[in-house]
Amino acid sequence: MGRKKLWRLAELEGFDNLIQFTDQPEQDAFRLRGAWAKGHFKNGNSITLELACGKGDYTVALAEKHPDRNFIGIDMKGPRLWSGCIAAQKLGLTNVAFLRIEILNLPHYFAKDEIDEIWITFPDPFLKNGSFNKRLTATRYLEAYKQVTKEKALIHLKTDSTPLFEFSLRSLRDNRCTVEEKINDVHNDEERHDDLYIKTNYEKKHLADNRIIKYIRFLLAG
Ligand SMILES: C[S@@+](CC[C@H](N)C(=O)[O-])C[C@H]1O[C@@H](n2cnc3c(N)ncnc32)[C@H](O)[C@@H]1O
Fold it and tell me: What is the SS3 assignment for 175?
């Protein structure tokens, strides 16, 4: 690992807007599980997750737009989360936190009904044969989301990957999820809700390469 990444990982230890898996002995119930709003954000507001948040662009932009809601960006890569933590600190945002964990472990960190909404932004498409199970819309991930969300929680997926988009539609159908909205080309379609047009680091790169951005909004099966 390069020196910059090592330095960022060390600095993360002192951030109060970041919680890392290393904060928690595996055998204990996570201290904020079921109590994020009151225990961490010190309010009773709703919680939205951004999964695979990388540098946390969506998390920070959503938090700026919606000060009456709480946002948690989740990724397993510490040096990327460092950028989100710094951006939120510079903007003085108190409704943002970052959590460094494997997304599959969500139920260890959140209680049933604790999450109101989820954004999944440009997740890795995992195109190699045999790695489909790592896609964030594979059955085992949908099951993890179900264990932490409210009934009727909205889940948004943005991707530039056609194989991932098509896989997701099949997986949602197989898992009896309800697709509420599907857009084949976000930036060449009629204007929709505002939050859809926030651009992450990866989205900016994909647009510069003339890639087409796709979107699905869905509900998990009841
Ligand atoms: C292509 S990047 C997208 C980052 C960001 N959403 C953006 O659009 O700029 C995908 C991110 O997903 C994270 N990731 C992939 N699978 C994950 C998992 N199972 N648990 C936690 N993070 C994961 C990677 O670490 C990486 O930062």
Answer: coil
124 belongs to the catalytic site: yes
- Reference 88, options 120, 119, 55; nearest CA is 55
The token pair that represents 100 in the structure block: 């460094």
Question: Which protein residue has the closest C-alpha to ligand 1 atom 27?
Answer: 54
Q: Residue 182: its pLDDT value, please?
A: 97
Give the Cα-Cα-Cα angle 204, 98, 1 (nearest 5 degrees).
75
Of the candidates 124, 160, 174, 195, the residue annotated as catalytic is 124
Return the pLDDT at 23: 57
Instruction: List all residues whose CB is within 6 A of at least one atom of ligand 1.
Output: 52-55, 57, 75-77, 80, 102-104, 121-124, 200-203
**Segment 71-86, tens digit of pLDDT:** 999 999 999 999 999 9
Q: Tell me the average pLDDT across 199-213.
A: 95
Radius of gyration of the chain (CA): 17
Determine the topology of domain 3-21+30-219 in CATH: Rossmann fold (3.40.50)
Q: How confident is the model at residue 26 (pLDDT cuts 50, 70, 90)?
A: low
